[in-house]
Design goal:
Layout: H1 3-6, H2 40-49, E1 57-60, H3 67-74, E2 78-82, H4 86-95, H5 102-127, E3 135-136, E4 139-140, H6 146-150, H7 161-166, H8 174-188, H9 193-211, E5 214-216, E6 220-222, H10 231-249, E7 257-260, E8 276-281, H11 291-294, H12 296-301, H13 308-316, H14 340-356, H15 361-364, H16 366-384, E9 388-399, H17 411-421, E10 425-436, E11 443-452, E12 458-460, E13 487-489, H18 496-506
Parallel strand pairs: 1-2, 1-8, 2-7, 8-9
Antiparallel strand pairs: 3-4, 5-6, 9-11, 10-11, 12-13
Helix pairs in contact: 2-3, 5-8, 5-10, 8-9, 9-10, 14-16, 16-17
Length: 527
């Protein structure tokens, strides 16, 4: 039985909102932001509802581009984030560093822009171009349109062949790419390490918004092909926006906020025990959106992903939510092998595939990726428990999906059921908004699972050793079955193994490097 079926009153809709960035929330958030990011005002709502205040630590284990972390920092609340995607991890880390002075940033940016522009004019002279030949978006173009047709023959800079193969075809034209690489060289050659991180983030944002050819709908694709683009001008405008925002928020820069490049399925390896007061996050949904594909252009151009091997390594650190990230050795599905509701959905997807005669490699993986997704989330919930303080509140923004051959997946209800089976208390499933399915047109629910961690594991007194399990013909050797109903307090047995675990736990550091930031293992630091 799903959680919502057993709790119909608590599962009723309570709100319906928009997934847009409001003008009053723009500062810092739009330095670089995923198209599908959940909005800051939703984070604000649950910070208020959970009573989060200064001295607390809020965790976002799927922090993306740092929406939760930025909102916490604006309120003077400490925060921590986990993120496996290299470009998202980089963006979040920069967006919570408010130590730079705006005027210093602008001064250095103008020097870099001047150096990059000079280098581009030198390149133009070397190519023998006519200086007044064309304009792009109202700005003089350094190269005429013939440069876009000849690529390397005109002396334009390019990425390494292996890197070029990682990009979506036509996601960036030759001349804009040449300008971008010239500008990137000037940024990396600047004297200030602090400036370089802001400069690189502004370049990542400009690549997506004004330099590349990408368009975003249900999936990332290629839109209007720009033969040329004002790369330096777009980048400089972005840096000036960052500088203005820093002047507004710099008085709150002392609030600690830490971002760890880590897999959320193994949260306990990156976080100290009992350090988290609240969790506000939005994990990936089970659909065919490849999040590494959405960020591919800026990841490759900035050198964060240089080869197929590095791309594969990046994908292996993510919860399996689409068939492009599934590998033969994956075993996350074992965590929910006995979950009947998820098994029924996976079986329905496979039956539909056979009925429709779908035989592609990706379509054959639909049933498996569904199990892998929920298994990965089960691992995340289980691993997270050690880091939570008793009474910690949690909010998970998730959405229903029908991407796999139109079989409906009620993500919120299924995840609530898994979490409750692992000892969490599900307080409510709030309706955030509805959105039309791109496949069926049906209205899909986007929900917020609101939970609490009671502080101790709970178990159901259902089976005794030697008794037969209702799902097995063999006597059960387990002491208990972990479920969400008829629970009793769990206490560790007084055995030598338990005593050893207690001694090891007591020898761990009790606090992190600041009152707000959870302690983490050195191996989890990003290189």
């Amino acid at each position: 039985m799903l959680w919502a079926d057993a709790n119909p009153a608590l599962a009723a809709p309570v709100a319906n909102g928009e997934n847009k960035l409001r003008p009053q929330d723009r500062a810092v958030h739009d330095w670089y932001r995923f198209v599908l990011s959940f909005p800051p005002h939703l984070v604000q709502k649950y910070l208020d509802q959970f009573g989060v205040e200064a001295g607390n630590t809020v965790l976002d284990p799927f922090c993306g581009t740092g929406t939760t972390l930025v909102e916490c920092k604006k309120r003077g609340v400490g925060s921590a984030g986990l993120e496996s995607n290299s470009i998202a991890h980089f963006a979040s880390a920069v967006k919570v560093d408010w130590s730079a002075k705006g005027e210093d940033l602008v001064r250095e940016a103008e020097q870099v822009a001047e150096a990059a522009t000079g280098a581009l004019w030198d390149d133009r002279a070397a190519c023998g171009q006519n200086t007044g030949s064309s304009e792009t978006d109202g700005e003089p173009s350094l190269f005429d349109e013939s440069a876009t047709a000849h690529g390397a023959e005109t002396g334009l800079r390019r990425l390494e062949p292996e890197q070029m193969k990682l990009l979506l075809k036509d996601s960036i034209s030759p001349v804009p790419l040449h300008k971008t690489l010239t500008l990137l060289e000037a940024i990396d050659g600047s004297g200030s390490a602090s400036f370089r991180q802001y400069g690189r983030l502004a370049l990542a944002n400009a690549l997506v918004q004004r330099i590349g050819n990408l368009k975003f709908g249900p999936e990332v694709g290629v839109g209007r092909i720009r033969g040329d683009a004002p790369a330096v001008e777009a980048w400089l405008a972005g840096v000036k926006t960052i500088a203005q925002d820093l002047d507004q928020v710099r008085d709150r820069c002392r609030v600690a906020s830490d971002v760890v490049n880590s897999d959320a399925r193994h949260a306990s390896e990156a976080l100290a025990p009992r350090t988290i007061d609240a969790v506000i996050t939005s994990p990936p949904y089970p659909n065919e959106k490849d999040y590494t594909r959405t960020t591919r252009l800026e990841s490759v151009v900035l050198g964060l992903v240089r080869s197929r091997a590095e791309l594969r390594q990046l994908k292996q650190g993510l919860v399996r939510s689409n068939t492009r990230g599934v590998y033969v050795a994956d075993t996350d599905d074992q965590a929910i092998a006995e979950n009947q509701a998820i098994n029924r959905i996976a079986e329905a997807i496979e039956r539909r595939r056979i009925e429709l005669g779908k035989t592609s490699g990706f379509e054959r993986q639909y049933a498996r990726v569904t199990r892998l997704y929920f298994g990965g989330m089960a691992q995340h919930f289980a691993s997270l428990r050690k880091a939570l303080k008793p009474g910690a509140k949690l909010a998970y923004v998730v959405g229903d999906q029908a991407s796999y051959l139109r079989v409906m997946i009620r993500t919120g209800q299924l995840l609530a059921d898994i979490a409750e089976s692992l000892g969490y208390r599900v307080l409510n499933i709030d309706l955030f908004r509805t959105r039309p399915s791109t496949v069926t047109g049906e209205q899909l629910r986007e929900e917020v699972i609101v939970m609490e961690w009671p502080g101790k594991l709970v178990r159901k007194s259902q089976h005794q050793p030697g008794r037969r399990s209702p799902t097995s013909s063999k006597p059960s050797s387990r002491r208990s079955s972990w479920t969400a109903t008829q629970v009793v307090r769990w206490k560790p047995l007084a055995c030598p193994r338990t005593a050893r675990r207690r001694r090891r736990r007591n020898n761990r550091p009790a606090a992190g490097p600041s009152p707000f930031v959870p302690w983490k293992f050195p191996s989890s630091e990003a290189t």
